[in-house]
Design a protein that fits this description.
Layout lengths: L1 H10 L2 H6 L5 E3 L2 E4 L11 E4 L4 E4 L5 E2 L1 H9 L3 H12 L7 H30 L4 H9 L4 H6 L3 E3 L5 H8 L4 H6 L3 E3 L5 E3 L4 E7 L5 E8 L7 E3 L15 H11 L1 E5 L2 H9 L5 E3 L7 H8 L4 E6 L7 H13 L2 E7 L5 E7 L2 E6 L6 H7 L1 H9 L2 E2 H10 L7 H16 L4 H15 L3 H11 L21 H13 L3 H4 L13 H16 L5 H7 L5 H12 L6 H36 L3 H35 L3
Parallel strand pairs: 12-13, 12-14, 14-17
Antiparallel strand pairs: 1-2, 2-3, 3-4, 4-5, 6-9, 7-8, 9-10, 10-11, 15-16, 17-18
Helix pairs in contact: 1-4, 3-4, 11-14, 12-13, 14-15, 16-17, 17-18, 17-19, 20-22, 20-24, 20-25, 25-26
Length: 625
């Protein structure tokens, strides 16, 4: 696998891949641009053609063409590999698991495409769909939207779709797997969607994954979605994302609404950064998609929902998932701890009572834009929602208010703004501000391994390959070591190779979710395209000399620290290279900014060197160098 990956990197220019998404400007031997992964006014995103890497010195994103494509398009490693291999004209070694899964997915897509065409044709031409067309017209949906979004109609029949699909050569098992029919208790099947308007649901790449359907009669539920399948996962789906992706990326903002019409009408009126959560509270996987596209989120809530438990839970999901700015703090062990502060702007739009987003947009698009522009910062929303439900004269409710609001105040990046809200909270609960400030300092200490992960660093492709493989081989050979080196805060950023990074991500999830580590079971969770490389790593681990667990732990620690030392050295050299370019261009502001970054990383490198020296002394004492 590394051979194929390296061959792709040799054939595909990272400049071409990145240049399709951002406007690159020549800067010496590198290129720079505004970062596509966070909002900024001054370019801090660099592409280095010689090493085939990119690095943003603003948000920390960095890596190779695989990392960039995965982050930009929100896809997994296997899909990025297939896309880039096709672009490079490189053949991939067949893997049985991939072929079987891909064939099943492709076949189900054909089933869904055929069903969508059937529903769409009925809506456009069938007399049975008159009520559906009248409903859409009443809601303000025009013909261009009907055709552009491939809306459809499912007839009031128990087997119309089934009959059509079987006559087209599909099998009933295909329809069952695609969620189009339901099996009867007494045998046989019937159509899932009947007398409903059909909304095809797509993934970010434009493939149909399932359907949403609105009842035209009194059938319950009013809205019905496809069931879970290998293609459709409601918790990971955002309706309209395939139409909204570019607009969200360009504007730096996504507006999240609840239903299909709430998306269709704004897009029809030219407001194209709107997606829907399909009527559910926001989920981590939905937020993961959005955070790759923008740094500003607006949640459009109806007046009744604003402040209810589901809304607050959705906002908590957003806060848990979204990126945070990392502030380095040395620990007593000589390592680096990072305090993380929320860097994404989350706002809440409270709709006029009795109005849905589509109604507001249809009546007055400018009013919608005003509401979005005046959306309440999430901190103010929390203050209003939480305090409205508590009696702040009651000591217990005062404590509850502090417990809910203080962590949110702590995630505000700007010191002045954070101080303002701290004063506001102190006034509300009538507690001395210094007491809250002390409590806030304790809260901002990292409470989990996740909070200790440093930001992504730039890497040379030729560096640390052996350290990469060695570290993973040790973990796969003795997985329990993962729990013994938690203070190292191992993260995907500690691995230079994309394949190793992806295997570690899967390893970390598996070991944290399972009480025992079974290699055979673990292999089933790994992307099939990575299995050949995984097997190589497992063999590397089993072929190493037998040593005690204590020595193996020291060996793993040393390996990780050496890898980080190399990463820091690489990044310092990279910054010095950019600094030299800035001097040639007489950009004194940039020279000063880069010098500050070099000094900060140099201090971090010195701390790492001291930690390695301490480890070397321990090894000498134990009789092993």
């Amino acid at each position: 696998m590394p051979g194929v990956v390296d061959e792709i990197k040799e054939r595909v220019s990272i400049v071409d891949v990145v240049g399709q998404r951002v406007q690159l400007k020549k800067s010496g031997r590198s290129l720079k641009a505004l970062c596509p992964f966070h909002s900024e006014k001054t370019p801090s995103f660099y592409v280095f053609p010689e090493s085939g890497t990119f690095k943003c010195f603003g948000c920390g994103a960095g890596g190779d063409i695989f990392t960039f494509l995965m982050k930009a398009d929100n896809i997994e490693f296997g899909e990025a590999l297939r896309v880039l291999a096709e672009r490079a004209g490189v053949g991939l070694r067949p893997v049985a698991e991939v072929t079987a899964e891909d064939q099943e997915r492709d076949h189900l897509r054909q089933v869904l495409d055929a069903a969508a065409a059937y529903f769409h044709n009925l809506l456009l031409r069938s007399n049975q769909a008159q009520a559906a067309r009248a409903y859409l017209q009443k809601r303000g949906v025009n013909q261009a939207t009907i055709e552009g979004w491939q809306l459809g109609y499912a007839p009031e029949s128990w087997d119309a779709l089934q009959t059509y699909m079987l006559n087209r050569g599909f099998h009933v098992d295909d329809l069952l797997a695609a969620g189009l029919v339901i099996e009867r208790d007494g045998g046989g099947y019937y159509d899932r969607f009947r007398n409903r308007i059909i909304f095809p649901i797509h993934d970010g790449r434009g493939n149909i994954t399932g359907f949403g359907a609105r009842a035209l009669g009194d059938d319950k539920p009013k809205y019905l979605n496809s069931p879970q399948s290998i293609l459709f996962d409601k918790s990971a789906t955002l309706y309209g994302i395939e139409h909204a992706r570019d607009s969200i990326r360009q504007s730096g903002q996504a507006v999240i609404v609840e239903g299909y019409m709430d998306v269709l009408i704004p897009h029809q009126m030219g407001i194209t950064n709107v997606v829907a959560s399909l009527g559910t509270a926001l989920t981590p996987r939905q937020m993961e998609q959005l955070k790759r596209l923008c740094k500003s989120l607006v949640l459009a809530l109806d007046a009744d929902a604003a402040g209810d438990d589901a809304t607050l839970r959705g906002l908590e999901v957003a806060r848990d998932v979204l990126d945070r700015e990392a502030v380095p703090v040395p620990t007593w062990r000589g390592l680096i701890r990072f305090e993380h502060i929320l860097e994404t702007d989350i706002r809440v739009l409270a709709l006029p009572r009795g109005k849905d987003p589509d109604e507001v947009v249809l009546e007055n698009p400018d009013e919608w834009k005003r509401l979005v522009g005046e959306a309440l910062p999430v901190v103010d929303f929390y203050f209003n929602a939480v305090t409205a439900r508590l009696d702040l004269h009651n000591p217990r409710d005062k404590a509850a208010a502090v417990d809910r609001l203080l962590p949110i105040v702590g995630e505000i990046v700007n010191d002045v703004v954070r101080s303002h809200y701290l004063q506001r909270l102190a006034t509300l609960v009538q507690v001395d501000e210094r007491t809250l400030a002390n409590r806030l300092r304790s809260l901002r200490q990292p409470a989990s391994r996740r909070a200790a992960q440093p930001p992504v660093a730039a890497r040379r492709q030729v560096a640390r390959v052996d350290l990469d493989d060695h570290c993973l081989a040790i973990l796969l050979y003795e997985p329990t070591l993962y729990w013994k080196v938690l203070d190292l805060a191992l993260s995907p950023d500690d691995f230079v190779h994309t394949e190793n990074r992806q295997i570690f991500i899967t390893f970390r999830s598996f070991i944290e979710e399972n009480s025992e580590f079974d290699v055979a079971v673990f292999r089933q969770t790994v992307d099939p395209m990575l299995l050949p490389h995984l097997d190589d790593l497992i063999r590397l681990g089993t072929q190493r000399p037998q040593v005690s667990g204590e020595i193996l732990e020291k060996e793993l620690t040393a390996t990780v620290l050496r890898a980080r030392k190399q990463r820091l050295t690489d990044e310092i050299n990279q910054l010095k290279f950019l600094q030299a370019q800035a001097k040639q261009e007489s950009d004194t502001t940039e020279v000063t900014s880069l010098a500050q970054r070099v000094n900060a990383l140099t201090e971090e490198l010195a701390i790492l060197n001291r930690r390695l020296d301490e480890l070397t002394v321990l090894w000498k004492i134990s009789g092993r160098r």
